[in-house]
Amino acid sequence: MSLISYTSARELIGRIMSGEFTPLEVMEDTLRRIEKANPSLNAFVSIDADRALNEASGLTKSIAAGATPPPLAGLPIGVKDLEDVAGMVTSFGSVPFRNNVATEDSVQVARLREAGAIVVGKTKHAGIRIDGILQEPPLRGYSEPLESRANVGWIQRRVGGGGCRRDDPRGVRLRRAAGQSAFPPPIRGVSGSNPPTGGSPWGPSRSST
Fold first, then answer.
1. Strand order in the sheet with 76-80
2. Residue 22, CA atoms < 13 Å, CB-side half-sphere
3. Would you say the C-alpha torsion 114, 9, 42, 30 has a positive or negative sign?
4. What is the pTM of this model?
């Protein structure tokens, strides 16, 4: 059992800051853990191990040379396949976007990276859907057995179809973008918030103007 794998993000940052761990050690351990667990969990649909290791190595050398670690200190992160990471596909889990390579980071990803986080890869999204049901064939790692707990459909059938809905004037019921915040939390006994439109910036790659 790896100590790093079972250390909280806050504690991990503190241990990197103190010199107990290096960003490279943390990243190598993270990638080993993903390699071992992802075949059954299928949480990551794409991984850029080379870039992650290069960034972690560079930060480790910088810290060793006396530089102050950034606030997130090389913390490995996964980015949901809805947000852009420069050089990686943002497919939204959907076939029409399977070749949609982002040319720049989304605002959120850029801010995290500026703070010292290192992107490991893209994590699974269920795809474009109407009324909570996936409307197209699986894409890039969305092909688990139907009753597998790693299958997004397994989860959504147990939380009422995957989200809240609204009635569209055309008679088509559409899933709310924040449905996974608004509906599953009460089932789990926790709270969920619905951010207002514009509260989280899209950035230049998906501007509404």
1. 44-47, 118-123, 76-80
2. 16
3. positive
4. 0.71
Q: Write 192-198 long-range contacts (CB < 8 A, 24+).
A: none
Q: In this predicted model, what pLDDT tens digit does every residue of 158-193 receive, in sequence order?
A: 433 333 333 333 333 333 444 455 555 555 566 556
